[in-house]
Amino acid sequence: MYSLLFIIGLVFFGRRELVHVLDCYLKRNLKENGGLLDEVIWSVNTNKVDDLAYLEDLLASNPSYRKHVATKTYEWYIGAWEAVDDPSAIYLKIDDDVVYFEDNAIPALVKRLLDNPQYFTVSANVVNNPALSWVHGHMGLYKGYYPEMTSPSQPPPNHSWRASELPSYEGPREGPEGFAKNGSTPPPFKGHRWLPVRLPEGETYDMSLAPVDTLTYDAFGPSLKNWAAAAQIQYSFLQHLEEGDTWRYKFDIWDYNYKRLSINFLAIRGSDILDVFPFPERDDEAYLVQTRPQQLRRRVIVDGTALAVHFAFGSQYNAFEGKKGIRWTDALDRYTAYADEVNQRSRWWNRKSRRLI
Q1: Signal sequence span per UniProt (predicted)?
Q2: Most buried of 124, 177, 190, 333 (most Cβ within 10 A)?
Q3: Domain, as residue range, for 281
Q4: What is residue 138's predicted lDDT score, i.e. its pLDDT?
Q5: Assigned domain for 222 exists
Q6: What is the model's pLDDT at position 348?
Q7: More reliable by pLDDT, 276 or 223
Q8: Whole-number mean pLDDT of the chain?
């Protein structure tokens, strides 16, 4: 079914430290490596010299990578969509700070879109996506975690991503002294870890004490700005990843009923973009998941089987002056370590047998 269909990754490029992680998963999903992606377009959304230099290195690393620079001036993120030029293709729009997605995510999204012409777009099941974060919370997926408030006497191991290697949190059940679960407390120090709450067997952690208790079913809810909730979400996912039970995040579909959805990772038909480009609204997200779908009476749904992780929104990344936020945790280092490990396992590809060796 897919052999006659052109499938294109469209990445809104801007930050090399995050793209380094995403690159691992994109290369695994190129057709040359047994995936579905014919090519990946890096739609440039930065003017930083170091980031642009990294992009050139990235382009040189694979012939299926190309970049697009908008030919006109557009408002906000609209220009990134100018790269869409094939009405018959399926585009996978992916934010540059997607730091994990399963190998089945792209096939699941493409199949769901092709099998359901009544859907305007299909989103992945994205970890750290405001309303979905509330859904995941009500599925019982979050673990008790609190920040390490002082630097450890012994430096933590390098290249570690496993929760089992973290020391236990030791402190009050409601969190460290002076720590606010609503994210109003600045991160204690750069590179700090979040530590798991390990309780005696038979005891259950009271999640109402945790940052994720602030989550609401709202695209602009507290989780959009609460760096502490984002940290707990990320460290919880990494623990599930180590324990091999990320299946717990999955479901069939979730219909957004024309409500706002953060478009971190989704599949959309090229024709549906080209029919209305340039968009008549400045806010591409609102237009693509609310305005246009309502005009066409075609739904926007989440495919719960297509699991992906979005690292952070700007308000979580830079919650305080000096870019203090979730980037002051070591969560990104942990995702980088995991991606590097995946890369090592995938380095040698036997194209003849089309299996990893």
Answers
A1: 1-21
A2: 124
A3: 7-128+250-310
A4: 95
A5: no
A6: 35
A7: 276
A8: 92
Rounded to whole angstroms, the maximal C-alpha distance in the chain is 61
- For residues 86, 89, 90 and 93, what is the CA-based torsion angle, rounded to 10 degrees? -30
Looking at the domain assignment, is residue 77 inside a domain? yes
Task: Please indicate, yes or no, if residue 293 is contained in any of the structural domains.
Answer: yes
φ, ψ (nearest 5 deg) of residue 299:
-75, 160
CATH number for position 15: 3.90.550.10
Q: CA of 211: how far to CAs of 171, 186, 306, in Å?
A: 16, 13, 26
pLDDT at 171: 92
H/E stretch holding 294 reads: helix 292-296
Q: How far is CA 96 from the centre of its chain?
A: 8
**In this structure, are residues 326 and 312 in contact, taking their beta carbons and an 8 Å threshold?**
yes
Residue keyed to tokens 């940290």: 231
Question: Residues near 221 by Cβ (< 8 Å), separated by ≥ 6?
Answer: 130, 131, 134, 215
Q: How many domains does the chain have?
A: 1
Residue 189, beta-bridge partner list: none
pLDDT of residue 202: 87
**Does a structural domain hold residue 19?**
yes
| Sign of the CA dihedral running 202, 208, 210, 214 | positive
